[in-house]
Amino acid sequence: MVIEIKSTIFAIIFTILFVTFAVYNSDKVNSFTSEFDEQIIAIEAEIEADNWEDANKKAVSAYEYWNANKRRWYLTLDHGPFESVSTYLEVLQRATALEDKLSAFEQSELVRGQMRAIRGNVNFELDYIL
User: Fold this and answer.
1) First to last CA, the chain
2) Is 76 a residue whose pLDDT tops 80?
3) Burial class (CB in 10 A: 0-12, 13-18, 19+), 37
4) What angle do CA 92, 93, 99 make, to 5 degrees?
5) If exposure means fewest CB atoms within 10 Å of the residue's CB, which of 13, 29, 37, 54 is most exposed?
């Protein structure tokens, strides 16, 4: 009887810790992806205004920011979207350097799509559960 109570207490404590970690992780990933999404919107605004030098600087900055901060989430979430974002950001940098508006907008939209996928993985939306 004592062993069952100890294991039950352990299971309850573990469950509380696990749920707390999941809520914390979800909140932090949502704020990280929202902040990063704002950077991509700023790049799109520069592209729309044909400020290619500023767009390229912001794209390089976004790529550096992404690489500096993705490791924190890389271990706890699905790796696929993270690798895709890195690839799309590299292409976005090249597109802004070459002043290719169509490709730059395409890559920025792909990055934003992957941000939605990362948020969906964390928020346990029905599409990602099934």
Assistant:
1) 39
2) no
3) middle
4) 85
5) 13
Structure tokens at 108: 């920025």
The vertex-125 CA angle with 43 and 81, nearest 5°, equals: 45
| Secondary structure (DSSP) of 42-66 | HHHHHHHTT-HHHHHHHHHHHHHHH
Decide: 92 and 111 in contact? Cβ < 8 Å: yes
Over 60: is that where the pLDDT of 1 sits?
A: no
89 within 8 A of 14, measured Cβ to Cβ = no
Written as six digits, the tokens of 35 are 């902040």
Percentage of the chain modeled with pLDDT above 70: 88
Going by the DSSP 8-state scheme, the letter that residue 88 receives in this structure is H
Which of 108, 120, 128, 93 is closest to 36 using CA atoms?
Answer: 108
